[in-house]
Amino acid sequence: MSIAENIAKVRLSIGQAATQHGRNPASVHLLAVSKTFGAEAVIDAANAGQVAFGENYLQEAIDKQQVVQTLRPDLALEWHFIGPIQSNKTRPIAEHFAWAHAVDREKIARRLSEQRPPNLPPLNICLQVNVSGEDSKSGVAPGEVLALAEVVATLPGLRLRGLMAIPEPAEDVESQRKPFALLHALQQQLREAGIPTDTLSMGMSADMNAAIAEGATIVRIGTAIFGKRDYAK
Predict the structure, then answer these.
(1) 191-224 as b/e, with b when 16 or more CB fall inside 10 Å?
(2) CA 102, CA 173: separation in Å to the nearest integer?
(3) How many beta carbons lie within 10 A of that of residue 114, not counting itself?
(4) Residue 191 lies in a domain
(5) Other C-beta atoms within 10 Å of 27: how many?
(6) 233 belongs to a structural domain
(7) pLDDT of residue 171
(8) Helix 39-47 vs helix 3-20: angle between axes, to the nearest 10 degrees?
(9) Please, which residues have CB within 8 angstroms of residue 40's CB and are 6 or more apart in sequence?
(10) CATH code where residue 68 lies
(11) Is residue 218 part of a domain?
């Protein structure tokens, strides 16, 4: 199947899942994860109406953005950085992306805010939460989300949009839903504390339905759109 056909299929699945759980399909946005795929694949997806693209590898992403801009300067795409953020990456992320999904430390947030170019709108931020308590996973602990959110919400170069999580894989839907339900509850906690947020970035190909059931507003889908990745390239 072509990338355009794959996108249509994924959008249909999103719509069906949203409807099944009493949600408006328009409330769930598709983020096409284009890491390891070239500019041509991004352009094919854009030609099918996709606007938002997620990238994990910084230099690859910036190179890809430049190629897409050269080949198709008419495209107004929205680039999301969804990988872990180290201190030495904050400036190029602040300069080249509209969103950063994996902020989990005050230091990183402050650097992104200070380094956001003044001619650009504030950088949209999601706080990454370690909802499964895995030692190997990045993310702020659930009990520390509110304190970090209170700081990030005050930074002038940023706009706190919500929360992001990558839970531990689970086989059955009920087990998949639990960490997503926790993330949703944490978002409600922020709202009750007077911190408005509108985004839950959660759910990938294997657990998208469970995420949508628990309120996902952005689902991050890669393989189902672009095909299997070849990390050896």
Answers:
(1) eeeebebebbbbbbeebbbbbbbbbbbbbbbbeb
(2) 24
(3) 14
(4) yes
(5) 12
(6) no
(7) 85
(8) 60
(9) none
(10) 3.20.20.10
(11) yes
Q: Which residue has the tokens 């390239």?
A: 233
**DSSP per-residue string spanning the chain:** --HHHHHHHHHHHHHHHHHHTT--GGGSEEEEE-TTS-HHHHHHHHHTT--EEEES-HHHHHHHHHHHHHH-TT---EEEE-S---GGGHHHHHHH-SEEEEE--HHHHHHHHHHS-TTSPPEEEEEEB-TT--TTS-SB-GGGHHHHHHHHTT-TTEEEEEEE--PPP-SSHHHHHHHHHHHHHHHHHHHHTT----EEE---TTTHHHHHHTT-SEEEE-HHHH-S--TT-
pLDDT at 41: 97
Judge contact between 164 and 179, C-beta under 8 A: no
Residue 228: per-residue pLDDT: 86
Q: Is the dihedral of CA 53, 56, 62, 67 positive or negative?
A: negative
Task: Write out the residue range of the structural domain in which residue 67 sits.
Answer: 3-226
Q: How far apart are CA 211 and CA 179, in angstroms?
A: 9
State both tokens at 53. Answer: 């693209």
What type of residue sits at position 186?
Answer: L
- Number of independent structural domains in the chain: 1
Environment class of residue 20 by beta-carbon count within 10 Å: exposed (0-12), middle (13-18) or buried (19+)?
exposed
**Residue 232 within any structural domain of the chain:** no
**Six-digit token string for 90:** 């904050």
Q: In order along the chain (233 residues), what is the average pLDDT of each group of 10 residues? A: 96 98 97 97 98 97 98 97 96 98 97 98 98 81 97 98 94 93 98 97 95 98 89 50
Spatial separation of the C-alpha atoms in residues 108 and 116, rounded to whole Å = 12
